[in-house]
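Entry 14. Two folds queued back to back today. First construct below, sequence then structure tokens.
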Amino acid sequence: MSMSTIARVFAVSLLALGMFIYPQEVLSSAGGGLALWWRFVLPALLPFFILSELLMAAGFVHFLGVLLESFMRPVFRLPGKAAFVVAMGYTSGFPMGAVLTARLRQAGEITRIEGERLLAFTNNPSPGFMFGAVASGMLGKPTLGIILSSSIYIANLMVGFLFRFYRVTATPRHYARLPSFKRAWGEMKGAQAKDNRALGQILSDSIKQSITTVLMVAGFMAFFSVILSLLNIWHVTAFLATLTHIAIKVIPLPTLQAFFNGLFEMTLGCQGTIQAVSGLNNQVALLVLLMGWSGLSVFAQVAGFISGTDLRFYPFVVARALQGIIALGLSQLFLTVSNVPTSALVIQVPSTSVLFWNTWQASSFMFIGMMTLLFIFVLIRQPRR
């Protein structure tokens, strides 16, 4: 029996033992993870998962691919079809980008290297989470949502640009043709002709696939909430924080503990940051670092969704670390040049129904904005007669 097998059996046995010893804590943490999923993940993911399935079945990805090839290829070294994944990733947050990237790779629409480039910068927190959960709910300063989201999104685009240099080979150059609505329409009709399913079946398959995916995300969130709860009960994160504090005494111990919590689960790390860190600049710095990193819970989701492809996982990890560091620097720059009220505000947590609606609304505005921006790029690239 190999050491990896022994370690796996030991870890699972230890987890099972902890769940039997601390059933109340397990139920509480799993319920907390599912509550976060209900408030911020379900409204941001389910409608747009269904929409993305319908758009892909309608050939919209091929339509957009023709129009945006001349923009995506020189900037990101990606085909125009990748623009759809970028837009949906910004709209819905984790793990929409991973799901759609895997779909394109399985369909042979992108190469392995292109898939790894695309995966690197299409996974972000949803706008509803940043504005609703963090800026308004945790910090009590809704205006900070602009700084948080700007830092995350700009850092994400910078990572995407850096990854255009990832594994560049001496393959024949792609000469992107100027966008043509006629050619794009023909590509879309051709894609529709290949999919001979009836409209009712397309809608049924879209809903079935979307619900399965969203429920899988709920399972990941509940499971990793339980793991982090047990790690805190066993003082594992406190131990890691203490060891790090011995080496880096300048960082307070509570800050390090919030940081290690965030390495495992982003949302709980963000909550711990508000409680452990003093000073607006320090709070924002750690928040964007953790949101850029995203946490092992999201890592497990992404690994699960790309497991049916040949995409490698390590470029995604490198991209997450890069995004967290770049976002941290950008957030401090934005705080320096902006005027954010620093007085403490009374935090009023909205009801669940209001949070659900606000999350869906923020994602809807982001989707409309991304689609508008992409079509502006198309119009700019149109040849002048």
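Second construct, same run, same settings:
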Amino acid sequence: MHDTATQVVESGVAAAIMRPMSKPDTAPTQVPRRARRAPDPGERLRDSTRTRQRILDAALAEFADKGYAGARVREIAQQAGVNTQLISYYFGGKEGLYNELMATWHRQEALMAREGASFADGIAGYLCAFAARPDLLRMFAWEGLTRQAGPRPPDTEPGPGEEPEVVDIRRRQAAGEIAADLDPGFLLVFLMGAAMAMVTIPEQIERLCGVRVDSEEFITRSDRQLRLILAHLAGSPRGSAGTPRPGEPAHAGADNGRPELPGDRRHR
């Protein structure tokens, strides 16, 4: 009897397993998908602008770290979170990226050149701009170190006549803002070298000046010392005794009355 009962139970279980599952009376509720809204032209423009800026920021970091020759578009794309084809679409490749960075810097320079600003204000503006974006200075340093490997930046080819910066210095010399016996080109080069020092010799700055290059104190003290130096370089309007005559280069006759320097044997 026990065996019969067991068989009945087993047959019932088997029947339950073999019996097809009954379908639900109603189908499961389908969650409607939200229609995807196409971005309006303004949004597309903002996305494009943000993407371009990410690419430019990544390119600046890459050029600052490796120079033009060592920079790789693939690395730039990876840092910007885009593919290399997008870089080609926006900028045409590595040279286009480099030229766009230089053009961006020139536009910033134009904004800093306020009409009526003093020479000291202009130089201090450069100092603050480079302190805020030291990667720019590093890129410029690489440009000098590997000048044959990369494209010549736009607007750097020597042209006929004097450069605008030199013309501006001569104007300031004529007004007495800068001593007339200083050569404008060399003055600008020396000031550029002083600005480059924060990325080329930061250890020497910290050793000699006792302040960290990346500190606000360095910028504040540099601004003050720069203005003092430029104040000492101030001259008198042209036509005063000892200044070049109109039309005469500022460096003409610079050896006249110049004290002999150590090792200078030209006058012996």
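Quick look at the second one. Residues 13-22, 239-268 have pLDDT under 50 and may be disordered. The two ends are 139 Å apart (CA to CA).
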